[in-house]
Amino acid sequence: MLLETEQTLELGAYKATQDSVDEYLRSTSDALPIYGQAGLAPPLYSVASALGMLLRKLALPPGAIHSLQEVETHSPVAIGSDVAVSAYLEKPRRRGGLEFITSVCTVTSGSTKSLTSKSTVLVPSETPREGAAREESAAESAVESGLTPVAKAITQEQLNAYAVASGDDNPLHLDAEFAAKTQFGGIIAHGMLTLAFISEMMAHAHGRAWLESGALRV
Fold first, then answer.
1. Could you tell me which of 136, 122, 35 has the C-alpha nearest to residue 76?
2. How far is CA 139 from CA 48, 66, 133, in A?
3. Residue 82 phi/psi, 5° resolution?
4. CA triple 24-70-48, angle to 5 deg
5. How do residues 76-117 score in pLDDT, each as one tens digit?
6. Which residues pair with residue 70 across a beta bridge?
């Protein structure tokens, strides 16, 4: 795979309309009233939109896995505002049959820098090590938090809706036949969808402060 790295790509622009924010919130089953009350989009709406634009630009092979994610909010994205997205691609790294592609997306609302989003995507070899992802996941320990837990049941219908809302149509999340042949053995949820649940917890706990200055690193 050949990518022109160590350069900035202009990914495009969009309007953060009420309809598009509502579509995103429905796809993540987030019904908190804070977004409408504040007139602000949730941070993960902007990050998911940026990641979807990046994935479409890179046109990675099917099965590429969104791995690490960092988010920093500098100023909120107002519903109805014009948003532009650019991305700086770092030099790819290779390890154990995987290529690690890291990008730093900058989301600008109007003339203001709103968010910085650092994403790492793993592109596996054609013969990934069986069970690797599950072994690593099983080794992780539980993390205690003072936040009120959010319980969700992720359905295929929700994954389909999130793919439309975010622009991330990776077949790992949508195509059972394709996903069955990967190291995961079946369909997996979008990583950004599960992060949206964390964002909902933070918005519930911290309200407008989360929308204006929230940050995540996973």
1. 35
2. 27, 19, 10
3. -90, 135
4. 20
5. 999 999 999 999 999 988 888 788 999 999 999 988 999 999
6. 118, 217
Tokens of 21: 């924010």
Q: Which helix (H) or strand (E) holds 23?
A: helix 18-27
pTM for the full predicted model: 0.87
**HSE (side-chain half, CA atoms, 13 Å) at 66:** 28
Cα→Cα distances 170→55, 159, 190, 197, Å: 9, 10, 9, 20
* 3-state secondary structure labels for all residues of 82-150: EEEEEEEECCCEEECCEEEEEEEEEEEECCEEEEEEEEEEEEECCCCCCCHHHHHHHHCCCCCCCCCCC
Q: Which CATH architecture has domain 7-125+152-217?
A: Roll (3.10)
The domain ranges of the chain are: 7-125+152-217
Q: Take residue 133 and report the two structure tokens written for it.
A: 């992802």
The token pair at 172 is 């790992």
Contact 98, 12 (CB under 8 A): no
Strand 65-73 and strand 215-217: pairing? antiparallel
Beta bridge partners of 123: 99
